[in-house]
Amino acid sequence: xxxxxxxxxxxxxxxxxxxxxxxxxxxxxxxxxxxxxxxxxxxxxxxxxxxxxxxxxxxxxxxxxxxxxxxxxxxxxxxxxxxxxxxxxxxxxxxxxxxxxxxxxxxxxxxxxxxxxxxxxxxxxxxxxxxxxxxxxxxxxxxxxxxxxxxxxxxxxxxxxxxxxxxxxxxxxxxxxxxxxxxxxxxxxxxxxxxxxxxxxxxxxxxxxxxxxxxxxxxxxxxxxxxxxxxxxxxxxxxxxxxxxxxxxxxxxxxxxxxxxxxxxxxxxxxxx
Length: 273
Known about the structure:
Blueprint: H1 8-14, H2 25-38, E1 41-42, H3 44-47, H4 56-65, H5 72-85, E2 89-97, E3 109-118, E4 121-125, E5 138-139, E6 146-147, E7 152-158, E8 161-168, E9 171-178, H6 185-197, H7 202-205, E10 208-213, E11 216-221, E12 224-228, E13 236-239, H8 243-252, H9 260-272
Antiparallel strand pairs: 1-10, 2-3, 2-9, 3-4, 4-5, 6-7, 7-8, 8-9, 10-11, 11-12, 12-13
Helix pairs in contact: 4-5
């Protein structure tokens, strides 16, 4: 089967990128930063009762042409296609989410990230981890602190895994544990199905929308809108109550046009909480 051609012009317009696409560390950093600010993390598809398709045609249609966002399998699935088309040496990674999870709870491998190899150095690229995704490539072999334009990260060896942590105003917080094995597409299909359908999956019962902003992040978790301006400062929070407020914030703050049926579906989830 012939793979759907990648629409470079539409993608570059979507992320407001007008430079030359070449497989360099500078290009990788620019693509991550632009993608993270232009295409929000969001799980509204799941709240509406659908399993997001992960084929290239569907990802381009939703995230680029319909100007919607997505979660890790969609975001990093699209970004994997972007980097391959640009000539990067890139492979998928799988990880266990640890953010907000008690230390004694074992989580499934339900996060997709990417490994990009440039001049013998492996970098983490991740545009799909909600409010904590790094907005710059991070050296996977580095064990010292690494910064992006928003915050500070570090990798910690945990058994055979690699734990990504980010610094918050409360100290170091776990993000996810990257496993040593190289996943296959079917592994992402399984993880995607689990996240979208399992009765206890967090994203089935909670609204999460996030994007990076100049020097900070904007995150909507259920009814709480959080603005972070640097990791050292406490976040600013406000609460949303009405359907109209959600529609306005999704449109104006995140650039998402959500149709009435999907907006009704996410409001129904919030009302059941």
